[in-house]
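re: that complex we talked abt at group meeting.

here r the seqs, copy pasted straight from the sheet so there may be weird spacing, ignore it
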Amino acid sequence: MTGLRTPPDASPDPATPPDDDFAEPGAAAAAPARAPGVRLGVLGWLRWGWRQLTSMRTALILLFLLAAGSIPGSLLPQEGTNPAAVSQYYASHPALARILGGLSLFNVFGAPWFAAIYLLLLASLVGCVLPRTVRMVGSARQPPPRAPARLSRLPFAVSYTTTLEPEAALRAAAAVLSAKRFRLRSGAGWVSAEKGYLREAGNLLFHIALLGCLVSIGMGGLFGYKADRLLVTGTSFANTVTALDEFHPGRLVSPGDLQPFTVALDHFSASYVTSGPLLGQPAAFKAAVRYSAAPGGPTRPYTLTVNHPLVVDGVRVFLIGHGYAPVFRVTDGTGHVVFDGAVPFIPVETSGLTSEGAIKVPDADPQQLGFIGVFLPSAVDVGGQLESRFPAPLNPVVSLVSYAGNLNMNSGPSQSVYTLDTAGLHRLPIAPQPLTVGRSMRLPGGLGTLTYTGYQQWVSLAITYDPGQLPALVSGVAVLAGLLLSFFVRRRRVFVRARAAESGGTVVEVGGLTRTDAAGGFEDEFSGLAAEISARHAGSPGVDHDPPPHGE
Amino acid sequence: MSRLPSTMRRAAVGASLAAALALGAAACGGATAQDTAVGNGSSFVSGSYGTTVFGQGSRPQAPQVTGTMLNGGRFRLTTDRGAVVVMNFWGSWCTPCREEAPVLGALARHFSGPGVRFIGVDIRDDPASAAAFMRDFRIGYPSLNDPNDAIALDFSATVPPAGIPTTLVIDRSGRIAARIIGPVSYDGLKALITQVSAERP
Amino acid sequence: MPVNTGLAGVSNDFLLTAVVIYALAMLAFACDFAFGKKPVKAAAVRAPALVGAGAAGPDSGVAADGGAGAAGGEDARTALSAPGGGARTAGLRGAGRWVAIAVALTSAGLALHVTGVVLRGLSAHRLPWGDMYEFVTALTCVAVAFFLAAMIRYRAYYLGLFVMVAVVLVLGLAETVIYTPAGPLVPALQSYWLAIHVTAMTLATGVFFVAAVTGIAYLFVDRHARRVAAGLPTGSDGILRRLPGPAALDRLAYRTVVFGFPIWTFGVMAGAIWADKAWGSYWSWDPTETWAFITWVVYACFLHARATAGWRGRRAALIQLTGFGCLLFNVLVVSLVIPGLHSYAGLT
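got the structure back, here u go
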């Protein structure tokens, strides 16, 4: 990677000739070569800009910015996941919220500046890694460098004398090294050996795979989509925009791209812990569904559980949550039945699954009707108050507050189906009474009657399609493989020199050097090698030498 | 690092960052589909409404839509070949649908002849609420009950209803001439129907 | 299957006893600092600098009797010294009686700790890292085990006091403040990927825990060494003088992070796989996911800074500690305070 400084205290090392991976390409070449006083043309500026972008320092800064930029995305409520909390933030801190919203801090991961950092990082990685890959492939067959003249300057060095001839000593050393799969190169009076080329390959694999991860995430963001749907037992839905409660398409997804499957919920069962300190905690959920991949296609059954999604046509349908939908029938003042269906109520606590919801009857005559209330699956009287003590429907009771007037549904912004806008409504003078199944509530003023006819269960489903999922998995595995290779494979060089000594015999010097020995251990390897080479030399008759000093 | 003076370097870095920001903004801007809110009473992909009109040469063929009407009768789209069909996807719980309902009712009364047929497709509603809606807004034309989204699914391959309310105008040859996403306006839809009715098949 | 509350109670007893024994080990390490014999200065034990491994401090593993030892300039005879210079010993016995007692106590405590964790798992019929309490007991177990291994490999006895202090504090907190009774997992957590993901994160956190302790020790030692080199008064530095030089601590911290980083990477990936199976999306910028990513980036910056830019010393240690800070923030603040998909801590 360009633009990298060598460590300031690394002396020019004879064992690391220039243009060698052991010494990172110096930054001396980073400045555009020009005579002083000559202005850079546009091309020159672009080249300079590209080199800055693809320098490792820039890549690291961008990576750090990506991480730093995601901090507000994790601390502030985000529109994509929690829009209600965002509105609440606006309500409670209006001025601050406006500033934050202007900086896209409520939608960090869709913000232009976040995308800019991500795109720049992508470009930087590509520009960094590809040339280096090409270079590595080109140098894959390169032999090790010549042995330096003075091996004693290397960080690991041993020297001793032996009675073998220099050539024989070198041959013996080469045999030992090549048996350990070092790549060898010989010269006059020296042998040079190198091993651990996989480290660079691992390093590049890691960075390329990182690139792959970024690209996969990008692909998912462009072509994938996520959607939610709440489905009441006994009903079905098809994967179309009109049928989805929430639809978060990728940038390039249009409604016609949705896979046309249909899912019907036949039955849902939940089991809970029935005793002990964790009473009421859910133990298992099961949703029996039927699905078909295309209209008119065959229908298949499936049991949907948490962590076991339904996979249909490349799309996955997950069971996320569940709740209750009490069924109501409302008759208005003129005697017509104006509402007859299940109304999903949303759980507000987990130990008893107390749920809240709203019933809107906008076409009741003479006045529109609205109700908000609670559903208690296992209602128990606790000191005059009703509470739900267990999440299963052992004693399902509904208690509603009644309103009449203008629901504000005939014009204006869309409302949530779970909350009532009481601004145009007046509360009816009827006390909220707990209704058991089958009971009715007669509204005063001849406005009508509400009957609680029963209850259903509902499941919430998450529908996701991500074409980048498999590439991301493959890239992730490659990231890990590259990381392990680059950490635990040492690129190391061992040199042996043998020359005739003045006093007879041969002086053998063995030296070794390693680059970024992250996991440690080269010292042990070197001492083992040196010991083996000297033992091979000592195996010849008439040797007289000092054994190399052993480390502690 | 380069030996350019640091002020120039800073300026250059700033310029490149700005360029990247612009690129990012361009990538994110445009017709972004805003997310709908949870349980939103319109199932709208807001920000994407508008009218799409297809020229006579490039109209997709409408699918074979069949279904049960709320009053019990059977419906088949192909039997209306020869008339202009205005198909409106709605729900009684949907605020923009309620907003446009008087417009649709009035237009249906205006185009009461045999050349134009209005039909509604009721989404995620119970029959009682749907009937009450039609009574309330005095909607004279029938609606299909689509509890399984089959009809919406039929259109997904051609011109899908991208939210409700959506109104499709189908010409006399059974091809989709226009799609309006969002509440219709009286003048806009009237002009569209008039134009499509006046075409020679 | 119902929870075996009797077994869960026994598990608690084992863990509480482990805390007590760790506290005793901590005292023994402290006694070593106070009363233990001075480290043996073995012959020719200078570790010459590795190429590119510029020593940040004025020493590189010389005997711990002041930081201003001579470095370099000596001949390059192979001094195949093990890294982790300071307390030059020839083995456990040479390290002194107090260290031997402390290590024995630590090992005994670890045995009890492991038993306690295993019993908890048996009582709930599942792997014992399903909620915050279990996660903390498991990660401290890993930290102690890793520390023992580091002691054997790198002879890093000097870390004992610091690691034990931290472990006793954290485990004590777990037993008292964040204890939750054993129980089955909520359905969202019933997946074998849970085992893989949380196991990996627990392991990595334990390892990074040791690295952070080493980093803090490094900062103190480095500051001390610099004050000594500048001739400034250093105050009471009994403990500090017995620790190895800054470079050795720096190297140990680096090697520890190198060990933990792939585990953390794998843990994040396993978590993504689990999220994909449970919630439909392998990366949804859930706050805990985001902070795990931030932690990963900071440690990656640390590794880059050390390995390629040659940043040694304080800057590197601070980056490493920032990374651990992000990790702590993730575990303590994000999963407990900020709502998201990860809120399963079992605390309400």
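couple things i noticed - Residues 50-197 of chain B form a domain with the Glutaredoxin fold (CATH 3.40.30.10). Chain B touches chain A through 66 residues (CB under 8 Å).
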